[in-house]
Amino acid sequence: MKRFVNSLFAVVLLVLLSCERDPVTPSTETPVALSVSFSNDGSGSVSSGVWSVVDSLRIDSAIVVFKRIKFESHLDSMDVDSLEHDDEDEDDINIKFKGPFVVHVRDVISIDLGRQTLPAATYTGIKFKIHRLKAGEPHEDSDERKWGHRISPDSLPVGASIVVWGFVRKNDEWVPFEFRFDEELEFKVRGAFVIPNTTNTVNIAMNFNPQLWFKNLETGGILDPTELSDSNRSLFRRALHNAFGKGKCGKDDDRDGHPDDD
After folding, report:
1. What's the Cα-to-Cα distance from 244 to each of 38, 127, 146, 185, 209, rounded to whole Å?
2. DSSP symbol at 75
3. What are phi and psi of 90, to 5 degrees?
4. Which one in 40, 71, 143, 144 has a CA-CA gap of 20 to 30 Å to 153?
């Protein structure tokens, strides 16, 4: 019995010494915090919750639903198109920020989309989808994250991917509008940055210019959000493609809610 106990003690000691010599290899993934901001000039500086679009349209607030936000190392090789169905790669393990994220755009400079871990690498941009929220679909809400279960008039955009509230000037009067966009669009935003292998959280930000949401790319004028005819739908779609496609992304080391200047 004594010989058995001594042998067992020797085995346990050997295992402990082995663990000391061969520590567990640290994870190669880096913690990343992702945020999004909206501003007139793309700089991330918002002085109030009102965006004036030239002299004929004003945005007071908006909701944008993001989904499937993916960091890409070879962004230029990625195809993006308008989508009217769920993607086959919905469960792609590389999509860390899956959403949907219901983002309420008011007078905040930066909206936190959460924290995940990403492989240390050089990235050339971010690919994401503007998503049409379904009734009863589980999601994350930026209002709940900031204020708790806050009740607001513009609560959930069920059946829409983008909702905008504001005023448009018609016949010398400011007319209120509620613009609802119910399509799904996928975008890729360029911005080269390196995520190092570190245990410290790396801040990444996306920034978009809402002044471009209602820009008529054919005339340079303003699209009327109260005129939602079939002929205008393609113009709104093109305007949103242009607006989100011209967004910026990158590291946010100074934590001001928008990508750092080069």
Report:
1. 11, 11, 24, 10, 8
2. G
3. -55, -30
4. 40
In eight-state DSSP terms, residue 38 is: E
What distances in angstroms separate CA 81 from CA 39, 125, 160, 188, one per listed residue? 25, 17, 18, 10
* 74-126 pLDDT tens trace: 876 545 444 444 444 555 667 889 989 999 987 657 899 999 999 999 999 99
The span from the CA of 130 to the CA of 134, in Å, is 13
Question: How far apart are alpha carbons 183 and 194 in whole angstroms?
Answer: 33
Establish whether the linkage from the previous residue to 100 is cis, with ω within 30° of 0.
yes
Strands of 111-119's sheet in order across? 111-119, 29-38, 202-208, 248-251
Torsion angles phi and psi, residue 112, rounded to 5: -75, 125
